[in-house]
Amino acid sequence: MEQLKLTPLSAHHTEAGAKMTPFAGWSMPVQYEGILAEHDHTRRAVSIFDTCHMGEFIVRGANAAGDLDRLVTADIASLAVGTCRYGLMLNERAGILDDTIVYRMDETEFFVVVNAGTIDADRQWMQAHLLPGVTLEDVSATTGKIDVQGPMALAAARAICGDDPGTLKYFRCMRTTVGGARAIVSRTGYTGELGFELYIPADKIAEIWRTLMGLDGVKPAGLGARDTLRLEMGYSLYGQDMDASRTTAEANLMWAGSMEKDFMGRELFAREMQ
Fold first, then answer.
1. Is pTM beyond 0.90 here?
2. Cβ(200)–Cβ(178) below 8 Å
3. What is the pLDDT of residues 96-119, one digit of tens each?
4. Is 64 exposed, middle or buried (0-12, 13-18, 19+ CB in 10 A)?
5. At a CB cut-off of 8 Å and minimum separation 6, what does 160 contact?
6. Which of 35, 100, 109, 219 counts the most CB atoms within 10 A of its CB?
7. Strand, helix or coil for residue 119
8. Which DSSP symbol is given to 140?
9. Range list of β-strands (E), 4-118
10. pLDDT tens for each residue of 44-90
C-alpha cells in the first residue's frame, strides 16, 4: 500500500475535522464543512488552501531564459522581472508533460511551479535539456504554499505581508516577507477570484496558517472546492484534462503557446493550428 506524504499542515487539517483523501501521493483535505459551503465562501469572502504539495524549482544561469523558452510553450524570454506566465512543457511528440507557471525573479533566476505528481519527472526532463551553465535546484521539500482566494483576499494578505500585495497586478510577483518569514507572493490562483499565492519556507508554514485562520472572515477550503471553483472558471487540471498522451489541441490549450519562438514540440503544435 502506498505511503502517503503529509504536508506541514496535515495536523491542522485533522484538528479542524477535515475529511482527508489521497491526491498525487499526498494525504490532502478534500473538505472541511462541505464542498458547496467552501465554494460559496470563497466566492463571497476569503478561503485559504493548503497547496504545499506543489513542486517548485529554481532555474539559474546566464542562459536560463533561453533554456526555459525552449522547454515551455509560453514566451518566457520576454518576461519582465516580477512577472509570471502560464505555459506547458511538451515532449517531442507535443504530448503535455505538465502545465506550469514560470516566475522571473531577476535577469538570470526563474522560479518554476509544477504539479505534485510530476515533480520527479519534470526535474529529470528539465535537467536533461538544460545547457551547461544553467542549473536547476528542486526546492519543493523546503517550500510551503498557501493560496489566499476570494474577494476579501487582499485584506487577509495585507495583514501578514511585509510589503503591500495590493500593488501587484494580475500575474505579477514580488519577494517580501510573510509573517516575518522570507517569501514570494504572487497575484495568481486557481479559483478565478482575486487571490494570492504565498510561497514560504516549509518550517514557517504552520505558523502562517494559524495567523491567517485567526483573521476575520478567513476559512479553510479543501480540494473539493478547489475543483468546483476551477471547473466553474474553465481551468484545466493536469492528469484529468491533460497529460502526455494528449496534445495541446486535444486539451484545448493552444492559447498557451507562442508561435513567435521555437520550443519542444512546436512542429506538431504548429500543424494543429492550421
1. yes
2. yes
3. 999 999 999 999 999 999 999 999
4. buried
5. 178, 179, 208, 211, 212
6. 100
7. helix
8. G
9. 19-23, 26-31, 46-50, 55-60, 84-90, 96-106, 109-114
10. 999 999 999 999 999 999 999 999 999 999 999 999 999 999 999 99
